[in-house]
Amino acid sequence: MATEQFYGTGRRKEAVARVFLRPGEGRIVVNGKEFQVYFRGILRAVYALQAFRETGTMGRFDAVISVEGGGPGGQADAIKLGIARALIKVNPDFRAQLKPRGLLTRDAREVESKKYGLKKARRAPQFSKR
């Protein structure tokens, strides 16, 4: 018997999250670890579950998430987008609740690449007159 499953992809900076939602009691597993263990002490990770709170589905789905690339902040934001996209597949009516809160918008900001002759992307070496 195949259990019903909903999928959503989230991206932020270099992080990519694949989110699988299954009907359950609210367990969230990220890369084989519990959510609180994986994001220990990272406050912005709490916002990754914002889509569940907005739609009132906090304890109704088990989430199996695999995330790679980027740092903890980018991974948390990628998970947030992936959960929101998966919830839309659960019920398209959730779009009206998620869209105004910006949960369906992919944050396109990326790190600017370093330029030759400069220390960073735009930071020039200190000028010396003598």
Automatic annotation (TrEMBL):
The keyword Hydrolase does not apply. Residues 116-130 have a biased composition (Basic residues). Coiled coil: none annotated. Residues 111-130 are annotated as: Disordered. PROSITE patterns: RIBOSOMAL_S9. Belongs to the universal ribosomal protein uS9 family. This is Small ribosomal subunit protein uS9. It comes from Deinococcus yavapaiensis KR-236. The lineage of its organism: Bacteria, Thermotogati, Deinococcota, Deinococci, Deinococcales. The gene is rpsI.
